[in-house]
Amino acid sequence: MSGMLTEHQKRALQHERHLSVTANAGAGKTTVLVQRFVEILLRTREPVSRLVAITFTENAAGELRKRIADLIELRLEHGSPEETRLLERARDELSSANIGTIHSFCARLLREYPVEADVDASFTVIEGVDREILLEESLRDTVQAQLSEHADAGDREGLLTALRLLGRKKVFRYLQHWLNKRELIGRMTQPDGCMADHLSDAELVGRRQWMVQQELAQSAGQPGWREALGRLVRQASGKKAGEVSTQLSRWESLASDEERVRWYQKLCPIVFTTSGSLRREWTGPQPASWDEGEDAAILHAHWKGMDGVRISADAGGVEQLMLRMVRILLNVYRKTLNSYDSRKSEFGQLDFDDLQIKTRELLRREHIRKELAERFRFIMIDEYQDTDQLQYEILRLLISDFKSGNLFIVGDPKQSIFQFRNAEVRVFEETKKAIASSSGAGLENDVSLAESFRLLTGPADFVNRVFSGIMGGAGSSPEIRHEELIKGRSNSAEGKVQMLLVEEGAGDQAADGIAIECRMIAQRISRMVEQTEIVYERASETPRPVKLNDVAILLRGRTHLRALETALAEHGIPYFLSAGIGFYQTQEILDFLSLFRFLLNREDDVALVALLRSPFFAIPDSLLFEVSRETREETFWGKMNLYAADHRDAILLRAASILREEFGLANRLSIPSLVERILLQTGWHGTVSGLPFGGQNVANIDKLLRIARDFETRGFNSLFDFAERLKTLADHERHEGQAPPEIAQNCVQILTIHGAKGLEFPAVFLPFLDQKFQYDTSPFLDSRMGIAFKSPDPSDPAQERSTPFFELLRRESIRKSEAEEKRILYVACTRSRDVLVLSGRLDPKVSQPSYLGWILNGLGLDRRSIRQGEILLPEAPLKVMEWSNGSGKVREMPHALALSIALEGRLQGIRPFAADRVEPDFRLPQLWIEPVEGRVAGEVFSASQIKTYLECPTKYYLRYRLGLPETRALPVPAGDDEESDDESDGELEGSLTHVILRDILSKEVAAGEVEERARRLVFNTPMLGPEQRERMNAAVVRNVTSFLHSDFGGEVLSAEETKTEFTVNSVLGEDYVTGTIDRLYRDKGGIWQILDYKTDGITKDELETRSELYKPQLAVYAWLIRRAYRQESVRASLLFLQHPSSPVHLIFDPAETRRYEQIFREVIGRVKSGQFERKIEICRTCTYRTGDDCLVRRG
Fold this sequence. Notes:
The protein is α/β, with parallel strands linked by helices. Among the domains are: 7-123 and 349-453, 3-Layer(aba) Sandwich (Rossmann fold); 128-347, no CATH class; 586-623 and 633-662 and 670-704, PCRA, domain 4 (Orthogonal Bundle), CATH 1.10.486; 940-968 and 1047-1186, Lambda Exonuclease, Chain A (Alpha-Beta Complex), CATH 3.90.320.10. It is built from 44 helices and 34 strands. The N and C termini lie far apart (76 Å). The relative contact order is 0.08.
């Protein structure tokens, strides 16, 4: 945004009254909120605690807090003394500021007033699969209780009737759906709601009939279809043409809605057949083109839109029966909710609905509402288009129904795309109206930020043309009117808009068309990079060639994801999936589940085989097959050990050794420690580094570690409990997002449109735009109208019947869904900065709505006449902002949009799909009965492995080839008053110290926080006795605080960017080298530096000697970092925590790095050739010493 604010943005900084801001995509609305937050602090001198800033995701809240902190730091550089004082106070208070999600804000209030809110003061929030399971259990138990012989006879008979008429599956599905729409059902059943208990069945049926009549009257009153019918009647020759004409002429004389409805219901059967065709009795013989004309299309669309609502037969009996079923199920719903609430209360739990509902009830207490209204003087809500009715009610209470406080909302109704999370776009408009009515006459209370600083000229014009044509056309409530984008970006470049279209008939089946489209996308991306097409740097607008990581492919769903991945792989295009779902179903998580299951039960053969095939051990299937043929043991574990002993198989011996060692530790180590140990022992990171999704795999395991730590902090330490929990989540939790991988490589991003909300990319691809939409299914819920589903026919319960009211709600649901789909398309198109590529299948016969159809209609293009090449659309006005001397001025200019169209088979480089087909070969394959040997193409070597080999090749052989446990630990630190001979305690001390240091990213860490974290870790370690725990806790705290209080620690923790426990991998020849660095940090000069902590118990005089021992390990890290970040030199520091003021710095320049690379190659070559000679000089301190000699005897 060039660092300048437009006049509209400046007006949005007003804080004297309630204010609403409607912002187009890319208008800088969050920037305005951040500026406003800081301006209020400076102008009003209010403390940070008086301000509330709310957004709707944890990530967005974290980003908002960071941007406010950054702005405060920036303003501190140039502020006056008084501003500096206020800003420094704000900076100090920012850590406790009310910046977060609406749920975190509500939770904070409930914890402050637990008695008044009637909640457990230490409540926990139940969510996700835990909530679903608890709801399912409550529903199941409630139904069983209501069907028991002890239940109320009326309730029991009612439920039995519902089960007989609707079936068990539908009853449970309807109830589960309602339980997930708890607040909506509550609104409908409250005293003034549409389903209030005090309303009789007759009253409800009457209301429903009235709503149907209103809809029919409105439909009849639309002039478009009547005018089209009038034009056709004048051309008609049928015998009933005169009757139709006479009926039409009566319209102007109809005085009431009742008369218009009767007229409409009488006319429709004359005009239309039951299937919606025009009756020949009035049209007469007509050519085919007559039925395909524009007027006939208008009539067909009108008939289709009102189909079902026009039912004229008496549907009262069906409506009565449906209403009875609704009442019965609502009774079960309430009892289930009571059971669910009781179970939550028993365990001190609240769900997300509870947080908001109980906060609303709390704020209805007058004295609390007044107290909080006085405390929170300024409330700012970002992304307000995602608000629901309940959240709106909470806000109204906080500002005393707009009579106190200061409310600021900012959002874009065109980007309201979270209806599935109960967001209601109408709330934005309602709030704007309420703000306007509460303001004084002539005062500005609504600001529009129409300028978009994101899109270049072409994409901006494209968005305006398409969405001005398809948004808000019907003027109905779900629709949002398009507000024209003003191009605010200073770059005058045109940008590109292109369509990749698969013609009708391409491929034999739909799947063929999808494959062709995916290949067109892959080819287009390849050509963009090969031909060095230009994109622009975000801040400087400097032109540069496009890179793969500039490209994002946005998906509406994941139906065709596999075909897209296949096409990208065929063209050698690297990519990664951002915000993928199904975390608990990923292979790496299932591999850990197999590990845990086997450690708990050695006879679980399935778990063991899955574990051995996984990247933990990577044992080939051919070898596992050979093991399975062993007959002397029943279990696979027994077979494996016998086979390994007989054949001296190094791979199996290593796996068996590691697993035997883990058996002894599985129930003694904490779960995170066990996970980390397995990763280290098996070299898992190195194995996955060469896989296509290695970065994603690593990110998911890091997330698993966080989940394990959270599991521990809640008091669960049992491996059995954690394994059971993981199994439950793998079976039931399908929507948990995968961890975002670190984007270190140049690759295309694939993500959903919802996941891309708030992001922008130089080049955006939108595929599969011809796909049909998925509409909601029965039961339909509407807060104003009620509940409806198809009901059994009273005269024939085996048949389901619709009612006009059901069709009315279904039609309303379709309208809402299509209105939201338009907004989703708008969000997708406005993620692009420079290049927008759209693709889909071009089928001229398609009649159902689709993104592609809307785009073509918005551009005025006929899909039947589209041709390959460049299309220059007629000029249309486009508003642009011109900047001069720090201010911007909007002017209107004519712009002709250049649209590039590529049809399948005519985009250079696209191979015909049929050419890739291979006729099936029906010859039987040859059978091989000899053992099939597997071979691993390359091996993985860690920094620790290379260091160990250089220390002693025999030690390497014992540790990594045979997997033998060490006979004693390395020397460890011990204070003067401690027992220095407890070496196993020292190893654990180092591990726990690393765990705490890993989570420390800044200097602002309280001593109490370190002590609490250490105590929790130490006291959750079951292998320690009481005295050992106290001693261990003191040692760990001492190690951590010595680093925090040292000058070097201060330097490290002031870094611009930090990565802890950072794993980096690289290829060396045909092998892989991997290393996990304790701390990688980037200094103010932008140079990455390495820090490795050590807890060795040595004197200061021994620092230099001991550092030489670790130098090869650091050399590996430096070599990896130099490769990853292209640095000339890398500084690696060793910090022995007993001497924090004396770090040892090692500089690895290019010559030194090349020297060590040669050493690494030699080590790997010697390992692979089996050279494991002894170095006698280290035997005295070796961890494999027995008595005075090595485990491996000479001679």
